Amino acid sequence: MEQQRENIFHTRCLINNKVCSMIIYSGSCTNVASVTLVRKLGLNTIKHERPYQLQWLNECGVVRVNRQVMISFSVGKY
Description:
By secondary structure, this protein is mostly beta strands. The protein has one domain. The chain is 9% helix and 40% strand. The protein contains one helix and four strands. A two-stranded antiparallel sheet has the order 1-2.
């Protein structure tokens, strides 16, 4: 059996000149921004053309994704 390996990378980034926490999870192909982030930064959302559900995001059950947001961010120099 081939062993699967997934990595989690946690860093800080700048969004609209504000420092935010960001997690990159190599085992996921889904990009998610929290409602709290969108509200605190005053970001504009638009209706998602193809809403979907996520079950792995929290312990409270299914999260319905029906809005989307475009975010430009920077992670410093590497």
